[in-house]
Amino acid sequence: MIDLHTHSTASDGTDTPSQLVNKALARCITVLGLMDHDTVAGWDEAIAHLRPGLSLVLGSEISAQTSDGISVHMLGMLFNRENSALLEALAKTRESRFGRMEKIISRLNEVGVEISIEEVLAQLSDGATLGRPHLADAMVAKKIVKSRDEAFETYLSNGSKFYVAHYAPTPEDAIRLIKEAGGVAVIAHPLASLRGRIVSIDSFKSMVDAGLDGIEVSHRDQTPDAQELLAKIVKQYGIIATGSSDYHGTGKLNELAEFTTKPEDFEKLEARANARRVVRK
User: Fold this and answer.
1) Domain containing 125: what range?
2) How many Å apart are CA 20 and CA 257, to the nearest integer?
3) 102, part of any domain
4) Backbone angles phi, psi at 262, to 5 degrees
5) For the CA atoms of the chain, what is the radius of gyration?
6) d(CA 210, CA 64)
């Protein structure tokens, strides 16, 4: 089984990279994608704990934003981690997340939700990318909500009045950065309407023109109708369909390998990178 989109404590997952590797092995996954938000911090630990039977696709889920403010997540896979332009863009995005978090907390405080930046940072692993799930975990710890899912449903979704955007490149610029670093670019859950406003169908052309390699078609947050539409877009543009769990660990319903990528589609995707970077032992 091939699951190309998972998260660890290097961003907003609850499993360390080594725990994630062990769970993937136990689940009989053969190819695991580690896609922490705007960071490559978990790569080395994942590699160190890799064992025969499992291959790693290393990358990052890169935050992007359209010109009209729609949040887009771009999976950059199999890129050269030494590429300075991409690393600088990731660092700039991570830095902007702190100011954004303070603004979200301020909005929550204004309506009587008592939470502080210190309580949020206490949920953050060393070197991890700060995100709304850490705020959700702080709210769970204070018994404001019972789970991450409840926190997002009540307070933290993209459509919430508490939502604040952070710096992010356009989807096209994110794709170009990934391609210039020798990797492949797959847009994650683009029609997941529960997360907020979704990209327009017409916008896929400009992303394909920028070098988009694939679309995450099979994902829990996309309806069967949305998945069918995305499959047609994949066929229209001659790109690649993927399926992934978007696993985050405890507090989120997604289970490892609940959606997977077909082996033949993964082969096509891997061939689009400028070097063989799948990690095997």
Assistant:
1) 98-156
2) 12
3) yes
4) -65, 140
5) 18
6) 14
- Token representation of residue 35: 């896609």
Q: Considering its fold, how many domains does the chain have in total?
A: 1
- The reply to whether 134 falls in a domain is yes
Q: Residue 184 domain-assigned?
A: no
Q: In sequence order, what are the residues at sequence separation of 6 or more whose Cβ sits closer than 8 angstroms to the Cβ of residue 244?
A: 3, 4, 5, 6, 33, 188, 216, 218, 219, 259, 260, 261
Q: How many CB atoms lie within 10 A of CB 223?
A: 12
* CA–CA distance, 23 with 272 (Å, rounded to integer): 28
Q: How long a stretch of residues is the chain? A: 281
* Chain segment 183-229, per-residue pLDDT in tens: 999 999 999 976 667 889 999 999 999 999 999 999 999 999 999 99
Tell me whether residue 264 is exposed, middle or buried, using C-beta atoms within 10 angstroms of its C-beta: 0 to 12, 13 to 18, 19 or more. Answer: exposed
Does residue 127 register a pLDDT over 80? Answer: no
Q: Whole-model pTM above 0.85?
A: yes
Query: How far apart are the C-alpha atoms of 152 and 132, rounded to whole Å?
Result: 8
Q: Which of 275, 186, 276, 200 is nearest to 239 (CA)?
A: 186
CA atoms within 13 A of residue 64's CA, in its CB half-sphere = 29
In a domain, 265, yes or no: no
